[in-house]
Fold these 4 entries.
Entry 1:
Amino acid sequence: MESLWLSRAKRLQAIASTGLYFCKDEFDRERYQEIADIAHTMLADLANVPITRIPGLVSDFAKCYATPKVDVRGALIEGGKILLVREKSDGRWTLPGGFADIGRSASENVVTEIHEEAGLQVSATRLYSVRHKAKAAYDPDARDFYKLFFLCERSGEMTMKAGIETSEVGFFAPADLPDLSRGRVLESDIHSAFAFQNGAQRFATFD
């Protein structure tokens, strides 16, 4: 779970973003901008990233009402093993997925991500987990978003291959997982996929 101060800094940033979008009074805009500057400085310190990167992490800052982003992940289990991809950005492994694109449903986004990152054609069959990243043990993040996890099934005979953002693709047993990209996925997300598929859990997580 993220720290209380990181949570507060993100909330301040969201208030400043929404305020700058809606307010018309120049005096109020100056105050909201000051709040934004303070929030950005806090986030840079707490997330240990350069302050110049912070505004870019929220691409719609001050352009709309501030709401959490949506991250989708797909779990494809075959022969007692689960599909993972290795991210070029950090060299670690994760369930394929990413931020949802506008114009596609959550399940359509999962299908697209698995095709782009692993070269496979799948169908998303069931939603097995919804998580608020800030409430779980993921690596701290200056952004705020919900994570949706889907069970998937292969729907084509395509050969798996890495994509533009991934360097390797493979299937792993739950007892033999590689080094995970913990900003994206946790061991519990993977174990929950197996439990849900086997009928041991009706819904893995809702937090």
Note: The mean pLDDT is 89.
Entry 2:
Amino acid sequence: MTTRVIIVDDQAMVRAGFAALLAAQSDIDVVGEAPDGAQGVELSRRTHPDVVLMDVRMPGMDGLEAARRLLSPPPGVTHRPRVLMLTTFDVDDYVYEALRAGASGFLLKDAPPADLIAAVRVVASGDALLAPSVTRRLIADFAQQRPVARGKPALRLKGLTERETEVLTLVARGRSNTEIARTLVLAEQTVKTHVSRVLTKLDLRDRAQAVVFAYESGLVAPGEQ
């Protein structure tokens, strides 16, 4: 199965480099490029990609607003791609808001080429949170700067079983399904089932949103490993 990708970045050389790298993969098809968020949203609506590589900072409509529009489309628009944010460490707040909006993860712009290819495949599969160790560190920083959202988020945790809560905790700490299976002495397929049930019960789109929810609800505290 071929993964359809579009690249949204205001730097032409970045777009060209990423496009060339991804197009060389037999399972990835780059179906378009755009220089800003507004054109990226229009291109996505027209080409229906599986994954959108979205720069955070762009003139006009930035990547955060574009991600919101793609992931919360207006009535009548049914296509919702997975969004992978392109960022650097100096835009952490934007990354956090993008994850809250439903972005599936992020990639540092100076990451090795192999990481970009792997990131697209991971996000396309919806099977794992990208760069869990970095994501955990960033979101822990965000959580330290914001009060825990008591009330509804915490109440929603009560709908989970004890095992599902354990799985969510480990997801929030950046563990992969394989690592969770090893920690809880479960089959990896069983872990996948638990993760799927957690997402369904909490009405979350993917693991990225699950990480944000776990911190905001107070299930996981900043700095915990």
Note: The first strand starts at residue 3 and ends at 8.
Entry 3:
Amino acid sequence: MGDEVPISDEERRLLAGWAADCAERVLPLFEKAAPGDPRPRAALDAVRLYARDGRRTGALRSAAWAAQKAAGEAGDPSAAAAARAACCAAATPYLHPLATPHQSRHILAPAVHAARARDLAHGRGAATEAGDDEIRDAIERCPAPVRELLSRMPPRNPGRGRPDTLYHRLDGALRGRTPRR
């Protein structure tokens, strides 16, 4: 297990807002594929409420799980990735104060799932410029306190597949170690 990492309420709120912004950019991919399913949108609404008032509630946790279930039922890979981005955004307020790679993954997951949604929508799972654009946007929008929070967590390893590449690129760029491409 990792060392304890202090996480302020303000950092959690800023992380939640940034994560919601990342996920919302690809939400139309889900809503086009499943127009009658409000669960990912509800998850983003719930995490935005948290970002404003800073209260973790059972409704927030339930909304995150509902978005995850919507991802499993989406039937379209890009829509599923978009719903997972919403789920991960709604889960950010529950980040554990532990310096582990798993916790750094939680910080990065909404942006990475958004990039994967774009990849899958534009390139049948391959690396695409659209996915890279999502990563660039996430880097540009990321508040300094979120970068500072990430810097207290272990860095991501490169891995082998496209998702691992996205995690590694985003992680390094937010830490100021890799080009933003």
Note: The chain has nine helices and no strands.
Entry 4:
Amino acid sequence: MRIGEIAALVGVTSRAVRHYHHIGLLPEPARRANGYRAYTVRDAVLLARIRRLTEIGLSLDEVRDVLADDAGRELVEVLGELDADLARQEREIRERREVLAALLEAPPTSDGPLSPALAALLESAPATGSPAAAKDREHLALLDTAGGGAGAELYAALRPLAEAPGVARLYERLDELAGAGVDDPRIAPLAAELVAAVPDEVLAMIPDGEPSPTGFGRVLLEDYPPAQREVVRRVMEALAVRVRATRGRSV
């Protein structure tokens, strides 16, 4: 293959190929008698590997380190890894198109666009005028849009909690703390009841170290007034303890 052919095959520009040669990331291939570079399948595989690594956000120096680790691997092993990676991309694209199709068919909502799984969860929850419940919906919509690890399994696990008759009263009690101080005696018992209401099935889907008052958790906390923020902070800390205890028992 010539440079234009390998570039087209892998989906990069000839200029990119020349740049990779210039910085030593892609070795120069042998040249034919007429002076043209002669690229092989191995070169194409390596170039495809470089493209994929840069697409996922690695710097060129980081790509160089990864390729150095790959140097001793057999071609069939590298090809297999690339094939698996392409299969993953195909699956992700198919899943995104399925979500998009569902969104196109669903009527627009004030929360939307939402994934079908989250929309089903919110529809199952009893209607309420609670500001705290509305805030929860907003947070779930943000998490759903940001793709912070949430998914259909998590929403399914949350459904019994959303449908529980006592949840509406918990939201009302949280609403009652809107203008209270952080030393309000209602904070501790409400936090404990909220923690107890979370099913074990939900805990199983929470990543290690979460929930945490950093990152998304910090943004969430800042959205509450002081007393409510203290309730949510305590809930986060207690759930993190429950998660660690659950993982400890399963080891």
Note: Residues 75-105 form the longest helix (31 residues).
